[in-house]
Structure formats: C-alpha cells, structure tokens
Amino acid sequence: METLITLKSIYKTYKLDSQEVDALRGIDLSIPKGAICSITGPSGSGKSTLLHIIGTLDRPTSGVISINSTNVATLSDQMLSVFRNCTIGFVFQMNNLLPEFSALENVMLPGIIAGSKDEAVRERANFLLKSVGLGHRASHRPGELSGGEQQRVAIARALLMAPPILLADEPTGNLDKKTSASIEELLMNLCHENGVTMLMVTHDPSLASRLPNAICMEDGKIISTSLI
Predict the structure, then answer these.
(1) Domains, the chain, ordered by start
(2) Which of 24, 70, 126, 212 is at 20 to 30 A from 60, Cα to Cα?
(3) In terms of Cα–Cα distance, which of 36, 3, 57, 85 is closest to 187?
(4) Coil/strand/helix, residue 176
C-alpha cells in the first residue's frame, strides 16, 4: 500500500531544569494510506509526543519526517502552519471549542484561517455537522451542548479541510462509556467513508483491540507494530 507518513530515526529530547528527558528514542515508522491505528503504552511512554511530532505541532530534536511526500523539516514555521491546516485534523481529549462561537462557527474556523470563501466554508461545515448528527444544533454554543455533542463538533471541525490525516489523542477520555462508544464508531465510520488515515492514542485496551492496526510504545520506543 502507498505510504503516507514516514519517520526515520526520530529523537525528541526536552530540557527540564538542568536535566534532559528523552521522550522519543530512535523512532522508525511507516504508516500506509488509509490505516486506522491505535497508539498504546504506559503513561510517559511517548505516545502524545509521537502524535505531536507527526502532527507538526512540535519538531523533533533529530530525524526525518515525511508526510504525503513532503519533508516537513524543510518547511518554515509559516509554511508548516499552512501545511498542517490543510493536511492534518486534530481531535483531543479537551475539545478546545471556542465558547463564544456557535457550533457552526467553531467548525468553520479552519476554513476561515485558510482564507477560503465564506459561503463554501459554511456549506461544508453544515454538511459535516449533519454528518455527525448535529445539524439541528448548529446555532448552539458549546456551553449549550453535552460533552458528547461537543466532541462531535470537534470531529466535524477536524474534517473541515478534508485532511488525509486525522490525529486523535484520547478523544473519548472525558466521556461516559455509552457516549464513548458512539464517538468511536463515528470516528471510524467517517475515516472509512472519507479514506482518512487515523492515528489514535488511547489507554483503553478494549478500544485499541477494535482498531485494525496497532502501535505499542514503551520508554520512548516502539516495541511492536501491527500495520495492515
């Protein structure tokens, strides 16, 4: 299968006071296009750091990252911001919705940032809200929505620019079991329908077992992979 994401000898070292902490230690990884993959491991194993590196939210200390045939290390911060907005969607445990904006306006934000035409962005945002079952809640602000509804808005926002990659960091961590199951099913269905490659960090072994691909980490290294 076509490779979408390639990491070669990725190291990430943080300085904390006078100490250095190796968060990632020599990561080599290839993710095929269309893969839906869990990232698991104990706390402090480097899962979220790996996701942030892949998402270009952070730069590695050393190593090479290629996403969609682009060597992201060669991009300036401004170019990287544009690349990220068009290529990668993010869904986090904290949905990071803007409380003063409606659900529709929150979903529209990536398009507004990209300078896309307002009418086209609004149409796409409305379509996505309907896709996640919230077409009737478009005018409601986050404070008027349940936790599960807020996360559905965040998913719609992440997909606005039709990114080939979706990164999810504990997206159901703050939700009850029933709501979590519906969000998980929604994410996987949307990825299958849109051909999106998804990497999901999770501490839930039951959820990880339901995803077709798996990456297991420990102490800043990948100790096992199962990629179809």
Answers:
(1) 3-226 (3.40.50.300)
(2) 212
(3) 36
(4) coil
pLDDT digits (tens, 9 = 90+) for 192-227: 999 999 999 998 888 888 899 999 999 999 999 987
The continuous run of DSSP H or E covering 40 comes out as strand 36-40
Task: Please give the backbone phi and psi of residue 90, each rounded to the nearest 5 degrees, phi first.
Answer: -120, 135
- Stated pTM of the model: 0.91
Per-residue pLDDT of 31-57, as tens digits, reads: 999 999 999 999 999 999 999 999 999
Residue that has been written with the tokens 């999770």 in this structure = 202
Pair type for strands 197-201 and 36-40: parallel
Secondary structure (DSSP) of 1-28 = --EEEEEEEEEEEEEETTEEEEEEEEEE
Residue 202, number of CB atoms within 10 A of its CB: 20
